[in-house]
Design a protein that fits this description.
Periplasmic component of amino acid ABC-type transporter/signal transduction system, alpha/beta, Solute-binding_3/MltF_N, 4-stranded parallel sheet, 5-stranded mixed sheet, signal, 15 strands, ligand-gated monoatomic ion channel activity, Iontro_rcpt_C, D-Maltodextrin-Binding Protein, domain 2
Length: about 325
């Protein structure tokens, strides 16, 4: 399911700020529900329940699927991770948000979003304690995470990428020796950097907003993270640039509590239907300015054009050779 960016082929970016975002009427976003990460972490450490966390008294069942709150599909995410999930005014919007809206709509409920530390999402703690029904955080499917939560079918392909200041001479991993490189806590980007960069100082940030700001301010010399968010940030900020990608073959999945097969299968059905009827492509184009496969098709067409040109050149050479022989 889903297609990400081809290597070195970022999609065209479009300004979304003035667009009307669909399905907003079906999404609940309230400061009392969406907690700041620090507050959420404090409440978790103290053992308190945040508003929006599941309780038996508010639980409900829809089509055999147990939800922690009646009339609501509650989603745990970690902000910001633009364009997948981020705040715009009084709402949380983004690619992942719109996909989960499709699931909520299919169930006949509204989506409520809780901002929570990414570590408690990937560890399964938020799902196991009834804080949310589903996790949507541009989360790469890994064997380690799969032990803690159950994933939907993949819905987005991604690679890791390297972003630097626009005036930097850094072009790849070999140029990072002795430099400070930003990574995000608990991410596959951090894992990639630890495994592939030996002589750089890795500086860990809690969220992508802090990571990208660190590159802009010169606090670090470069940043490694998923290509989707880095391309999106660079498209809106001329003082930084994405210089290369690393083909890691990451795939994002939506998470549910382990053994919650009923909800996981329903999510898969909705994702498959959306890909089939064009809704997935429409959401993809809304946030990335292109439809899945466009960059790959363009590359393929270019390659075919080159091949055709080469064939024509070969044919012309053969004709000239024949004429020379006849003379």
């Amino acid at each position: 399911m889903g297609t990400g960016y081809g290597a070195h082929s970022p999609p065209a970016h479009r300004n979304r700020r003035n667009e009307t975002l669909e399905r907003r009427s079906r999404r609940i976003f309230h400061p009392a529900v969406v907690l700041a990460p620090a507050l959420a972490l404090t409440l978790a450490a103290c053992g308190g329940d945040s508003e929006g966390a599941g309780t038996d008294s508010g639980a409900a069942t829809v089509d055999g699927i147990e939800l922690i709150a009646e009339g609501t599909l509650t989603t745990c995410t970690h902000l910001p991770y633009e364009p997948f999930q981020f705040r715009e005014g009084d709402e949380v919007v983004g690619f992942d948000v719109d996909l989960v809206d499709l699931v909520a709509e299919d169930l006949g409920v509204e989506q409520a979003i809780i901002d929570t530390p990414f570590d408690t999402i990937q560890s399964g703690a938020d799902l196991d304690t009834g804080k949310c029904d589903v996790a949507a955080a541009a989360m790469t499917i890994t064997p380690e995470r799969d032990e803690n939560i159950d994933f939907s079918d993949p819905y987005f392909d991604a690679n890791q990428a390297l972003m630097v200041p626009a005036d930097s001479d850094v072009a790849g991993l070999d140029d990072l020796s002795g430099l400070r490189v930003a990574v995000q806590a608990s991410t596959t980007g951090k894992d990639y950097a630890e495994e592939n960069i030996a002589d750089a100082e890795l500086v860990t940030y809690e969220d992508s907003g802090l990571l990208t700001a660190a590159v802009q301010t010169g606090e670090v010399d470069a940043a490694i993270n998923d290509n989707g968010i880095l391309y999106d940030f660079a498209a809106n900020n001329d003082d930084v640039v994405v210089v290369t990608e690393f083909p890691t073959g990451d795939q994002y999945g939506l998470g549910v509590q382990s053994d919650n097969d009923v909800l996981r299968e329903r999510i898969n059905e909705v994702l498959a239907a959306a890909q089939e009827d064009g809704r997935y492509d429409a959401i993809y184009e809304k946030w990335f300015g292109t439809v899945p496969g466009d960059s790959e098709d363009a590359d393929s067409d270019d390659a075919e054009g080159d091949d055709a040109g080469a064939d024509e050149t070969d044919e012309e050479s053969e004709v000239e050779s024949t004429e020379t022989s006849e003379n």
